[in-house]
Amino acid sequence: MRASAVLAIASVIAALPLRAAMDGKVVNGTSGQPQAGVIISLMQPGQGGMQTLSTVKTAADGAFHFDAQPVGMHVVQAIYDGVVYTEAVPPGSPSNNLTVNVYEPTAKRDTAKLNEHLVVLQPGPQQMAVSEDLLFTNPTKLTFSDPVNGSAKIWIPDGGRDGVTCTVTSPGGMPIQRDLVKTKEPGVYVIDYPLKPGDTRFEISYNLPSAQPQIFESRVLDKLMPLRLVVPPGITLTGDNVQPLGQEPTTQATIYNVATDRFKVQVEGMAAAASTPGGEDAGVPQIHEGPPPVYARIWWIFGLSLFILVLGATLLYRRGDPAEKR
């Protein structure tokens, strides 16, 4: 067979939008029983965003069936009691007996707790990039949902309130963009996103204009988990309410502990400027296919998290049991 014929056949196969039927069951993870009456959709990401290919409702035994599934990456999305649950289905995955878990909602705030709070500062010649990462852990079989007060609350400095973005990554889900909602208190924003069982990460990014001296001022709204400031190698922070904890061994980033709920630090040094393709700036936003910003730093974030956990355990060990020291 000629190469041109092979390429033609391959192109036709690649253009086929659907393949064999797919089925599965929606299970209520709280009760462990099949869940009837759940609206469930088959979706596929594209250049214009998520495209809904088919929508059905689960039967009395929680079962659902789609006549065909798309070739390539696709998502099964279930809506239960106002909360959206998604299951990403990679290419080549089995098309039968898919299980989608949903959970009963609760407004009890202690269902999920802030497990990690990092603020990464990267000063540059024109602006300072700020990335605030919050990791919430929900160890229960309930979904925390509070549309009025939101799941996360942060304070953003005045210079960064325009152009702020928020990326949310839920357990087993794909990163999505979420809007921040202003409150009556100046600078305080809430993020309304249900916290499902497992870990949910929020990444809030914004830029502050460069200044001499460069000052970063913020507030800690959730006092149950200490805030850590992180800066790249060559950059130092000075302030009355921050103390250096050490360097992360892999990235050499310096980690600081914030001792109070309101703090102000002076940032000294400058992060390396990111290069642009061709070395030119066209002056308009560029669209690039690829993972969201949090994925570019995901291993850095995990490394910092592990370092902080080890450091905390070491400090507790050195402190010892007060009863033993008497």
Could you walk me through the main structural features you see in this protein, from its secondary elements to its overall organization?
The chain is mainly β and 326 residues long. It has two domains: 16-102, Sandwich (Immunoglobulin-like); 109-274 and 291-317, Immunoglobulin-like. Helix content is 12%, strand content 42%. The chain has three helices and 24 strands. The chain has helices spanning 3-15, 293-296, 298-319; strands at residues 22-28, 33-34, 39-46, 49-57, 63-66, 74-80, 83-89, 98-102, 104-106, 113-123, 127-138, 142-144, 152-155, 165-169, 176-177, 181-182, 188-191, 198-209, 214-219, 228-231, 236-238, 242-247, 254-258, 262-268. An eight-stranded mixed β-sheet has the order 15-14-18-11-10-20-23-22, with helices on one face. Strands 1, 2, 5 and 8 form a four-stranded mixed β-sheet that branches. Strands 4-3-6-7 form a four-stranded antiparallel β-sheet, with no helix packed on it. A hairpin with a 2-residue loop joins strand 6 and strand 7 (83-89). Residues 5-18, 274-296, 313-319 and 321-326 have low confidence and may be disordered.
How many strands, what sense, and barrel or not for the largest sheet?
8 strands, mixed
Shape: elongated
CATH architecture of the largest domain: Sandwich
Percent range for helical residues?
Answer: 10-25%
Distance between the amino and carboxyl termini: 87 Å
CATH topology of the largest domain: Immunoglobulin-like
Question: Low-confidence spans: pLDDT under 50, at least 5 residues?
Answer: 5-18, 274-296, 313-319, 321-326
Q: Order of strands in the sheet with the most strands?
A: 15-14-18-11-10-20-23-22
